[in-house]
Amino acid sequence: MKLMYYFLVNRTSGKGRSVKVWNEIEAILKEKNVEYQVIITETKDEGLAFINNLLTLNQDISGIIALGGDGTIHEIMNRLIGTNVPFSVIPTGSGNDYARARGISKDYVKEIEKLLQNDKKKIDLLEIGDRHCMTVVGIGFDAKVADEANKMKWKKWFGGLAYLMTILKVLITYKPSSIKLTLNNEERVFEKVWLIAIANHAYYGGGIKICPNALSDDGKLDICIIHSLPKWRLLFILANVFKGKHVTMKGVDYLQVESIQVDSDDPLFVTADGEMMGQTPTSVSVKKEAFHVML
Ligand SMILES: Nc1ncnc2c1ncn2[C@@H]1O[C@H](COP(=O)(O)OP(=O)(O)OP(=O)(O)O)[C@@H](O)[C@H]1O
User: Fold this and answer.
1) pTM of this structure
2) I want to staple 162 with a disulfide (CB 3.0 to 4.6 A). Which of 7, 44, 83, 158 is the partner?
């Protein structure tokens, strides 16, 4: 069968880097006589329309490859779930946590070589309401930080550092809350909870290794709960979280389950793949081998 690749380039991700990278990739594809089509999008609706069209035409699709960040991937994945179309990304966003966890580098020459070998596998996803998430669902302090960081005009210019600066800003006013978790079928109450991260891959927030043991092919959700700590100790934990060294520290619970329901007295922000999903109550479960990815 002839291979045919479809590239979706999000012009808005990573300070416009995606279009520059695309130009280089296009030259490589031409040199190698690879069959491809490309769309450069300004909005997520344009991207979705492109994919809808491909799926309706029932094309032979060897792979859809995004040039963008986690927000772009989130949209494409939510459209491709339920199909057997393989997906991959050349990371050109500001956070790129999905690519980081899957070992996809910014060396696009090397990554294109790998993609053209056409190896695939199925991975798990997180199911949250009627959406799906590839990386991490964040609830509480971290979601508030993501919300603030997304509003910041300067986010794109600081990359991962934008989250760090926003963390300090949110820390000044944020109040931890009491939360009831239903873990599989077991109820547990946690007091003074700062955040709950529910992970399919290890990273969020531009390189924060919140759930270092998360694997997207183990049929499990990895859950990190940070609670019952004064602010200064939270800062200490956050200083260790980039290397994933926080999990054994006091005030951190790390669990693995298949499903979780989160109820809180006050509504808390919820994000998935860094995109705002709404507020608690919320439930998340693992959807095993639900998504086809290129290796
Ligand atoms: N196909 C698309 N074209 C244009 N914009 C899109 C598309 N898909 C999603 N978006 C929106 O573009 C925004 C930015 O994209 P994305 O998140 O990929 O880049 P980023 O913010 O630079 O990277 P990251 O999320 O890794 O930090 C997202 O909030 C998303 O909603």
Assistant:
1) 0.94
2) 158
Site residues for ligand 1, CB cut-off 6 Å: 8, 10, 12-14, 41-44, 46-47, 68-72, 75, 93-96, 274
Residue nearest atom 13 of ligand 1, based on CA coordinates: 71
**Stretch(es) of the chain classified as CATH 3.40.50.10330:** 5-120
Distance between Cα 40 and ligand 1 center (Å): 12
The CATH architecture one would assign to domain 132-288 is Sandwich (2.60)
CA 25-29-32 angle, to 5 degrees, is 140
Please tell me the CATH superfamily of domain 5-120, with its number.
Answer: Probable inorganic polyphosphate/atp-NAD kinase; domain 1 (3.40.50.10330)
ipTM: 0.94
Question: Nearest 5°: phi and psi at 134?
Answer: -95, -30
Structure tokens at 282: 């919320």
Convert the pLDDT of each residue in 31-85 to its tens digit. 999 999 999 999 999 999 999 999 998 778 999 999 999 999 999 999 999 999 9
Contact 284, 222 (CB under 8 A): no
219: amino acid identity, one letter: G
Site of tokens 């199909």:
83
Q: How far apart are CA 38 and CA 230, in angstroms?
A: 51
